[in-house]
Design a protein that fits this description.
Layout lengths: L17 H27 L3 H14 L2 H13 L3 H13 L3 H13 L3 H13 L3 H13 L3 H14 L2 H13 L3 H14 L6 H20 L3 H13 L3 H13 L3 H13 L3 H13 L3 H13 L3 H13 L4 H12 L3 H13 L3 H13 L3 H13 L3 H13 L3 H13 L3 H13 L3 H13 L3 H14 L17 H11 L3 H13 L3 H13 L3 H13 L3 H13 L3 H14 L2 H14 L2 H19 L1
Length: 603
């Protein structure tokens, strides 16, 4: 696994031992008991603040009866914190209206916490103007929960400006949900229309707020932070945040962590996290588990996980089931699953279904599915529609679909558009599309582009003795690229260019490679080269291969060799072959040779 082996080897998630926890809890209990004794002594002495604090302590403990007597006494003495806590106690006991009365008293006295509680009370009852008033009172006093609740209310109402202001205020005061929601709002607003510097600044701010929320334990913020870091290539830190989020129960983070581990080569650990995410209902993780088992040949287990993904609402599950069935030759079941995914809008399933129908001879049924997939953005479907219409002779319609696929980067579609432009005489446009296809790895496009450039270039100047050899032209570079990808005609052409430079070894290498791949021109040219170098017996072998493949000139060469050797009958047979193969000038020469051999034989 390399570096990823210690991806999570930090002390970040170290947990205290049970003994340490027990010691801490015992100490806290002892401290609280001592504090309670101190407060009760102060209460006995008539200390109002002690009454309020003791009431709050008992309220936290759940001793409502004991807390209420203390809080009422402190409230009667004018303690606003006690009034707020009395409202909390009454609200928890179900006396919401009485609680609101005490909250109002505390809020009027300046309690920001009570103003927040009162605002929440009015919002729950649908009185948004009153809720906004009290939440605003709380927020303006710096109460973080009041600021967040006010932002949430304004966002619900559609006041994005006000909501953004108070959400930011809450986030700046450490509210983790506010920080997360602020990051999400900024993230959604960072569209492609922003210029580079602006987008970068927004991106930095988004990451800052996600980081703040994640550091405070927000699991979805940790997930989004991990995604940002992964895109940036900071895989170790991304993995740590995914782990933090996954441990808190975020299934998407567990799934993402699985993919990160798989890419690092640790499929076993990846499977553990995918299993955890899939069991929590993550369809993407279930699909990943299905693919993992399918790769291992465990098709039944793979099918079970694909079904689990489908049950989780992930249409990829049905599509993957279709792929699995198609690989096994279960065409009817594959069609069933493709249809299910396609009807749910899965574009690749629509394309796969169309291909399946087309292979079964149902062209009429295939076309609508190709169209649906193409309209949904499937580049392969657009290309397939081009092939479909080209087969019907509808060249214009085919070209339109090829152009659509080419615009999305489909290499073979760009080649088809380039070829169509060549046929139409639009050489400049043809060159543009051929460059795209050649750059995408199409050997045929590289060869066609080379021929276009070759026809355009001026003849090379005479080479004087002692001058340095000229650099290769662009067309030669494209010929060589096509040749290196196994394009036979390009290999022959590269061999011819090498021969013209006098590089016999290089020429022979390319001719031989083309000939061995089945090129009759390559075999013929290799024979010529060998004959010139004095290796006529080997040349005859390659000419015979070329002639057997239908090369007229090779047949004529064989006839001449046989005539020179005195093998007149064999020479006449090859001359007859050359006459039938052509071209015309070869046929004429071969006919004269044949007649001469015939006369010699009959003499």
């Amino acid at each position: 696994m390399g570096d990823m082996a210690n991806l999570f080897g930090t002390g970040r998630f170290a947990q205290p031992s049970g003994q340490e926890e027990a010691t801490d809890e015992a100490q806290e209990a002892a401290d609280e008991a001592a504090e309670e004794v101190r407060l009760r002594l102060a209460v006995d002495g008539g200390d109002v603040e002690a009454m309020s604090m003791l009431g709050a302590m008992l309220l936290r403990r759940g001793d409502f009866d004991g807390a209420e007597s203390q809080l009422r006494a402190a409230t009667a003495a004018g303690d606003r914190a006690a009034a707020n806590n009395l409202g909390v106690l009454l609200h928890q006991r179900g006396y919401a209206d009485e609680a609101a009365g005490w909250w109002r008293i505390a809020a009027v006295a300046g309690s920001a916490a009570a103003a927040h509680a009162l605002g929440r009370h009015f919002r729950e009852r649908g009185d948004e103007p009153a809720a906004e008033y009290w939440l605003c009172q709380s927020a303006e006093q710096g109460h973080v929960l009041g600021a967040y609740a006010l932002a949430d209310l304004l966002e619900h109402r559609g006041d994005d400006t006000g909501a953004g202001r108070w959400m930011r205020a809450a986030a700046e005061r450490g509210h983790r949900e506010a920080a997360y929601r602020l990051a999400r709002t900024l993230d959604r607003g960072a569209g492609p229309d922003r210029d580079g510097e602006d987008a970068a600044a927004v991106g930095e701010e988004v990451e800052q707020w996600y980081r703040q929320a994640a550091a405070r334990g927000h699991r979805r913020a940790a997930l989004h932070l991990g995604t940002i870091l992964e895109k940036r290539g900071e895989l170790k830190e991304a993995g740590r945040w995914y782990l933090t989020s996954a441990k808190e129960g975020e299934a998407r983070a567990a799934c993402a962590l699985g993919f990160l581990l798989r890419d690092a080569g640790d499929t076993e650990s990846a499977a553990v996290w995918w299993l955890r995410a899939a069991q929590d209902g993550d369809g993407n993780a279930a699909n990943a588990l299905g693919a993992l088992h399918a790769e291992r040949g465990e098709t039944q287990t793979a099918e079970r996980w694909y079904r689990a993904a489908m049950d989780a609402g992930d249409d990829n599950g049905a599509y993957n089931l279709g792929l699995l069935c198609a690989e096994q030759g279960r065409t009817a079941q594959a069609e069933q699953w493709y249809r299910r995914a396609a009807y749910a809008g899965h574009r690749e399933a629509s394309n796969a279904l169309a291909i399946l129908l087309l292979r079964g001879g149902d062209e009429t049924g295939a076309e609508p599915w190709f169209s649906k997939a193409a309209e949904a953005g499937s580049v392969d479907a657009a290309f397939n529609l081009g092939i479909l219409h080209a087969g019907r002779g509808a060249e214009r319609t085919a070209l339109r679909w090829y152009e659509r696929a080419a615009a999305a980067g489909h290499t073979e579609a760009a080649l088809q558009v380039g070829m169509a432009r060549l046929r139409a005489g639009d050489e400049r446009e043809a060159e543009r599309f051929l460059r795209c296809a050649a750059g995408g790895g199409s050997a045929e496009a590289a060869y066609r582009l080379a021929t276009v450039l070759d026809a355009r270039r001026p003849p090379p100047p005479a080479h004087e003795l002692g001058e340095p050899a000229q650099e290769k032209s662009e067309c030669e570079e494209w010929y060589e690229r096509a040749a290196s990808q196994g394009h036979r005609r390009a290999q022959v052409r590269v061999g011819m260019l090498a021969a013209a430079r006098g590089d016999v070894v290089e020429a022979a290498r390319w001719y031989r490679e083309a000939a061995e791949a089945g090129s009759r021109n390559g075999a013929f040219n290799l024979g010529l080269l060998l004959a010139r170098e004095g290796s006529e017996p080997e040349a005859v072998v390659w000419w015979r291969r070329a002639a057997d493949a239908g090369h007229g000139r090779a047949a004529l060469r064989l006839a001449l060799v046989c005539a020179r050797r005195g093998e007149l009958a064999e020479g006449q047979r090859w001359a007859d072959r050359a006459v039938s193969l052509g071209p015309a000038e070869v046929g004429e020469r071969a006919a004269r040779l044949r007649d001469a051999l015939r006369q010699e034989l009959s003499a």
